[in-house]
C-alpha cells in the first residue's frame, strides 16, 4: 500500500493519499487549506487517480479544499452525517467570538456527498477502509483503518496525536465521548501505525505507553493540537 502526504496550509493539517501502489487509483483524506497545488504535485509524482475524498471530520482545516478537489475530478466526498453541515457553514464549528475570523468565509458542498456510517467497509481504489465513528472532537468524527502488509494503518483525524489528543472545547466537542472513543481505539494492536491529522506519525503502543493524556484513558489536562 502506498501512503503519502503533506501538511496543508497555516493549520499544517495532514492531507494523505492512499493507493494500492503507484500508478493506480487512490483516495484523498482531508484536503485542508490551500491543498490543491501540493495535492496535484503529489498525485502527479505517484501517477495516481483519485476516486474519492474521505473526511475524518468537518472542521475547516480538514475540509477547506474538498469542493475544488472533488469538482476538478468529478469524485464524491464522504463525511459522517453529524458533520455534514460544516461543509457549507464552517463557522458552526467555532464559538461565536470566532465569527470574525471564519464567519465571512464561503465554502460549498461538493456536488456528490456521501455519508459514512460506523463499521462500514469502503471498497475504493482497490482498498478496503473500515470506518469507525469516534465522536468527541466533533460529533461526526471518524477514523479510517486499512490493512497494510502485516500491520494496520489508522488515519486518526483529530482523535489521537503523537503525545496528545484532540481538543473538545469547540462546538460539538464532548470530553466524555472523546474518552470513550479513545478507549475503543486503544484496543487496537500495539503495532498499529497512527497517521494523525496534525504532526508526526506514531503507533498505538507508543501512545498507550507514553501519551500523558491517556492515563486510565482520562487526560488530566487540555489537549494541544488540532482545530
TrEMBL record:
Residues spanning the membrane: none
SUPFAM superfamilies in the record: Metallo-hydrolase/oxidoreductase
SMART domains: Lactamase_B (SM00849)
InterPro entries: MBL_Glyoxalase_II, Metallo-B-lactamas, RibonucZ/Hydroxyglut_hydro
Keywords in alphabetical order: Hydrolase, Metal-binding, Zinc
Presence of keyword Metal-binding: yes
Chain positions covered by the region annotation Disordered: 194-227
Cofactor(s) required, per the database record: Zn(2+)
Domain Metallo-beta-lactamase: 12-198
Gene3D superfamilies, alphabetized: Ribonuclease Z/Hydroxyacylglutathione hydrolase-like (3.60.15.10)
UniProt keyword Hydrolase present: yes
Gene Ontology molecular function: any one: hydrolase activity
Family annotation (Pfam families): Lactamase_B (PF00753)
Protein name (database record): Hydrolase
